[in-house]
Amino acid sequence: MDSNNDLEKLIDNLPFFLQHQLNNHIYKNQLIEIVLDLGRRPEARFVYGPEYLSQKIISWQDIDYITKRISKFSNENRAGIERTLHRISCIRNRQFLIVGLTCRVGRAIFGTISAIRDLLESEKSILILGKPGVGKTTIIREIGRVLADEMEKRVIIIDTSNEIAGDSDIPHSGIGRARRMQVPKTELQHQIMIEAVENHMPQVIIIDEIGTDLEVLAARTIAEKGVQLVGTTHGNCLENLIKNPPLADLIGGIQYVTLSDEEAKRRGTQKSILERKAYPAFEIVIEINSPNSWTIHEDVESSVDLLLRNNYLMRQIRQFTSVEIIKIKCDRSQHYSNLIFKNQKRSTDSLIQRRNTWSYNNEIKSRKIFQPPLNNLVIYSYSISNNLLKEAFSKIGIKFILTNNVRKASLIIGLKKSLKNNFELKRLAKTKNIPIYSFNQLSIYQLTKLINSFV
């Protein structure tokens, strides 16, 4: 993973005795935040734990030195540094004077969402759950970049506290080509969400920290208009949302239902039970258990129904140590099945049934009939991003040529729903004996599996 954090710009705004200590620290790149409280020793929090930076205590002059070098604090008591992702939050006393600062390091980490790229390509709305500080904002920042740059979608980021795209009118490069709408006041976030849909025709809207009834209602409204949502909220797991009344509507809402005597007896339950009352605004939920372990609920509707009935639910646990090695566990009734992706080349077996697979006939054809000339591979892509093809082939190390002339192609790759009605293309391919490989919904994993079958 490649990280861009502009750490020097944060350190340069600290008092000189702290600058020297941090610049020479061997674990500087693992810094999470710096805590400066009046009358206390400065403390740095690293990935491995906290550590004091100096024996000198923080004075009024130290706090004043920092606050004069950063932007003004908002109503949320947050400020930033121009053209960076760092966030400085303040603690005030009863006279509204600043007596403490929390300087959090903002990072744009490229490649951090490779484990869920197949979920992004499903075009379903995704909700990310996690405790404060676990990295939700970093994840959705990278999601915005991937959707805008690599999947070429129209992406709008609703940036309430300028934490996603930085404290500047010019967005940070970490969000790529995605556009950012700033929110003047926190309580107006729901209005900006609706305005984004009505005025700017986005395909994807990204929201950080959904927390109020109005924001939940706005999210449901956007989802009903056919726009893909990617949002975050605080919580440990899906069960937390069910028990949180303001947020429960994100996953369909909960209501009490009274059953008849016969139905209650058939189900073996009480007459008054909890049931989901509507369709979820978010179809996929990702629980960020730790930076390297995520729990995936690919069918929120079914997961919520099973939880309300006290049944076991199907979920995935995706663990990764790098972009190249991803481990997936399929958890059901305390039964685990391990699946490992190495270099993103190996495909899953029958324990995880993916909807996004090409047809069985094409798989057999690629193995037994078609062996393309790998030294002179010419591909005609139909409704597929060229960037995705380039990324998949580069991982395998196979060179190829993209063509706009189907007559010169040695292989046609496309989406099944688009190819289905193009009878002329299929007729021409049959005449020229050009094989067609169709996918229901394409991801890089299926592409690499297809390519590997050629080798």
UniProtKB/TrEMBL annotation:
Upper lineage: Eukaryota, Sar, Stramenopiles, Ochrophyta, Bacillariophyta
Keyword entries, A-Z: ATP-binding, Chloroplast, Nucleotide-binding, Plastid
Entries under SUPFAM superfamilies matching the protein: P-loop containing nucleoside triphosphate hydrolases
Pfam families: PTPase (PF25516), Spore_III_AA (PF19568)
Gene3D superfamilies listed in its UniProt record: P-loop containing nucleotide triphosphate hydrolases
Annotated organism of origin: Tryblionella apiculata
All residue ranges annotated as the AAA+ ATPase domain in the record: 122-261
Annotated gene: ycf45
InterPro entries hit by this protein: AAA+_ATPase, P-loop_NTPase, PTPase_dom, Spore_III_AA_AAA+_ATPase
GO molecular function: ATP binding
Entry protein name: AAA+ ATPase domain-containing protein
PANTHER family hit by this protein: KINASE-RELATED (PTHR20953), P-LOOP CONTAINING NUCLEOSIDE TRIPHOSPHATE HYDROLASES SUPERFAMILY PROTEIN (PTHR20953:SF3)
